From TrEMBL:
Subunit structure: Homodimer.
SMART domains tied to this protein: PGAM
Protein name: 2,3-bisphosphoglycerate-dependent phosphoglycerate mutase
Site annotation Transition state stabilizer: residues: H158
Gene name as annotated: gpmA
Active-site positions on this chain: H10 (tele-phosphohistidine intermediate), E88 (proton donor/acceptor)
PANTHER family: PHOSPHOGLYCERATE MUTASE
EC number(s) per entry: 5.4.2.11
Native species: Methylobacterium jeotgali
Biochemical pathway: Carbohydrate degradation; glycolysis; pyruvate from D-glyceraldehyde 3-phosphate: step 3/5
Keywords: Gluconeogenesis, Glycolysis, Isomerase
Reactions the enzyme catalyzes: (2R)-2-phosphoglycerate = (2R)-3-phosphoglycerate
Keyword Isomerase: yes
Length: 211
């Protein structure tokens, strides 16, 4: 039994490019983001991976990334489950603001704390702890049982919803998770043991040769 779980942050979005806080806002992918997602699909196919089911959020940048990955793998017809629980962290009052403008308004130290602390939310938004409070129950109830049953699972989501999940999978602490960066469009591959812990982890590198 493979017990395969692959995580992928969406490709570059229009607001990533503009350095805007995005959260639950719903911009599309850029041309680069589309290509990042397609490359991820080609890499996974070249490495021999296949999927039985995919999970994604209710936001189009993640949904489109999921669709493009599966399309490159000729898996467009597999089951795809969309869930708001996998949405990006809600940035509240920061949503739509340029990150430099936010630093000028509230100060670099305060904005850094909102972005990187585990349990301090921005005004009107979610902390990473809040995000984990919805991501992890969904993972335990819906995603993990499919992995443990032998389904090969893709999760195409967002930087912070995936950070919340990786924190548990990699047994990171609220302190160590602060430094974790997840690149757009780079698949992270896990194989789980029978007790649901991680047996193997690998990150498919941007430098994998394409044929």
């Amino acid at each position: 039994m493979e017990r395969l779980l692959v995580l992928a942050r969406h490709g570059q979005s229009e607001w990533n490019l503009k350095k805007l806080f995005t959260g639950w806002r719903d911009p599309d992918l850029t041309e680069l983001g589309v290509e990042e997602a397609k490359k991820a699909g080609r890499w996974l196919l070249d490495q021999g991976y296949r999927f039985d089911v995919a999970f994604t959020s209710n936001l189009k940048r993640a949904q489109k990334t999921c669709s493009l990955i599966l399309g490159e793998m000729d898996l467009a017809d597999i089951e795809v489950v969309r869930a708001a629980a996998l949405n990006e962290r809600d940035y509240g009052d920061l949503s739509g603001l340029n990150k430099d403008d936010a630093r000028e308004r509230w100060g670099a130290e305060q904005v850094h704390e909102w972005r990187r602390s585990y349990d301090v939310p921005p005004p009107g938004g979610e902390s990473l702890k809040d995000t984990a409070a919805r991501v992890l129950p969904y993972y335990i109830e819906h995603i993990l049982p499919r992995v443990m049953a032998g389904d090969r699972v893709l999760v195409a989501a967002h930087g912070n919803s995936l950070r919340a999940l990786i924190m548990v999978l990699d047994r990171m602490t609220p302190t160590t998770i602060a430094s974790l960066e997840i690149a757009t469009g780079i698949p992270i591959v896990y194989r789980l043991r029978a007790d649901t812990t991680v047996a193997m982890k690998s990150v498919l590198d941007r430098d994998i040769d394409e044929h």
